[in-house]
């Protein structure tokens, strides 16, 4: 049975998508050891059973809160066959932050651009084909509350299963990438899997305690030296540097692929 995970910002429409996919075939429990609600369900497509897990809503995937840790550990450890990110198109910059993190972590990602009705009302126009090429992952437009786009989503999930695909690499500034490269080399020497190098490097720059715990102290010492170099070069807290790099990238692609009336831009400021 293949397994898919739904993640996204709070209020992006995750639960609505989950309900639309699974209907009444769902089970609500708790994540092990914590009182955070865990929703699982399934649906059948072409006689195949697909398991769906609704992850806690998060804006990013640091180890700072229980919700973020649950979502991240599920994505990293349980390795869903497909990871679906639900995006509220009326709040695209903030929603794309999580997208950059997921794209760095996982193969087989589908982006669901939800709230298409609200976006249309606000006059937001998105070049979905452009974004699809930029990210190298499928994009499905939905109105979860009306079940619009759900069949397309199911068929894309099916297609993904047979066609494992890595998203395109997100390139940050050259100045920043030099440090990323150096840390990736240290992690590679320490035996970290190739597919984990980039996201673990960014997490280490953010100071992520859980990732640090799993790296030998010799390697950590070398990495910490590179991070202090970075701090000096950017004259800023390394965690802030990472989020600024992500937002600079997001601003660049939003400028390229999203058109909004001026009033909408002012409202979301
Ligand atoms: P979650 O926090 O990500 O699980 O989001 P929910 O599924 O609970 O949705 C948040 C709110 O947005 C609810 O009031 C939903 O009814 C509403 N909603 C979800 N999807 C859509 C959509 O496509 N269009 C509109 N207009 N509302 C939606
Ligand atoms: K709403
Ligand atoms: Mg929910």
UniProtKB/TrEMBL annotation:
Coiled coil stretches, renumbered: 143-170
Positions annotated to bind GTP: 8-15, 33-37, 54-57, 114-117
Residues the entry annotates as binding Mg(2+) 1: 22
Locations listed in the record: Cell inner membrane; Cell membrane
Family: Belongs to the TRAFAC class TrmE-Era-EngA-EngB-Septin-like GTPase superfamily. FeoB GTPase (TC 9.A.8) family.
Main function: Probable transporter of a GTP-driven Fe(2+) uptake system.
This protein's name: Ferrous iron transport protein B
Species of the source: Tepiditoga spiralis
